[in-house]
Write a structure and sequence with these properties.
The complex is a heterodimer of chains A (148) and B (129). Chain A is mainly beta and 148 residues long. Chain A has one helix and nine strands; from the N terminus they run H-E-E-E-E-E-E-E-E-E. In chain A, a hairpin with a 2-residue loop joins strand 8 and strand 9. The chains are: A mainly beta (148), B mainly beta (129). Strand 2 of chain A pairs antiparallel with strand 7 of chain B.
Chain lengths: 148, 129
């Protein structure tokens, strides 16, 4: 099931994200009809966001991307993940028979779900997944209120 | 290689009622033909090498892999673009592939399978006497 909550809209919807949205719609029909998710290569990397109280974790699908080619920046509550997926080195004279994977630059911009302690953000890239841990700023942490 | 594929589309019907549905994702693939081999590249983000199963049987190359599910400690899901689950894709191979000569590696979430051609399919230089 595709979950699209409007709480984290793309801030600058680009043409790429429109193309991806159309794919998502096509894919949704496949999912409803036979439980599969179509082959898709996204110009805007797919993400999921989880919340665990004191922090949130954003996972970004970046297969085939090297650590050196990813840039993460935070500016006033806006998180931007950008970079480049380089084409694999192929022998001279090779011929493409099928081309579903897209190479080149990618960018994903999203509004942070809560104020973040920017200094303490950590990121790691493993098996094609970029995992960003965003500790909540003190004022955004859940707290128990004692009754007097 | 014959690039016509059969994509297995099997619904998880044996799952208990009320369980989270398990989705089958069809990974994006590139296929290239080089002088002596065919290269199949598949995007498998979120997969550990140990969970990738690759079989070559009766002219079919089957790829299956499990995405690592997030730990419960990761918290509750707020937003998701693509459901996680199992990756499956089947390629029907044409004539001219040597089944004993296949090489695969997994790096940065991308599986690259190199299927070498039969000797008779390899391009060769003909000497002129």
């Amino acid at each position: 099931m595709l979950v699209r909550l409007q709480r984290f809209p793309l801030i600058r919807p680009s043409w790429d994200s429109v193309v991806d949205f159309e794919r998502d719609v096509d894919s949704l029909f496949d999912t409803i009809l036979d439980g599969t998710v179509s082959p898709q290569t996204r110009r805007v990397p797919a993400i999921d966001i989880r919340d665990s109280g004191n922090q949130s974790v954003i996972a970004v699908e970046l297969p085939g991307v090297s650590k050196e080619d990813v840039k993460i920046s935070v500016d006033k509550g806006t998180l931007t993940i950008s970079g480049e997926r380089k084409e694999p080195g192929l022998p001279e004279g090779s011929r493409a028979l099928r081309n579903e994977i897209s190479y080149g630059t990618f960018v994903r911009t999203l509004e942070l779900p809560h104020p973040v302690n920017v200094e303490a953000i950590s990121a790691e890239l493993n098996n094609g997944i970029l995992r960003l841990v965003l500790p909540k700023a003190e004022e955004a942490r859940p707290r128990a209120i004692s009754i007097k | 290689m014959n690039t016509r594929e059969i994509v297995t589309q099997k619904r998880q019907t044996d799952a208990p009622a009320g369980a989270m549905p398990v989705y089958t994702r069809v990974p994006a693939a590139d296929i290239h033909e080089t002088g002596d081999a065919f290269l199949v590249m598949l995007d498998l983000p979120g997969v550990r090498k140990e969970t990738v199963s690759l079989t070559l049987e009766e002219g079919e190359l089957r790829v299956k892999a499990e995405q690592v599910p997030p730990e419960p400690a990761e918290g509750t899901l707020l937003f998701r673009d693509v459901p996680s689950g199992t990756y499956t894709r089947v390629f029907t191979l044409g004539e001219g592939i040597d089944p004993a000569n296949v090489d695969a590696r997994f790096e940065n979430g991308v599986l690259t399978v190199k299927l070498f051609k039969n000797e008779e399919r390899k391009p060769r230089e003909i000497a002129i006497h």
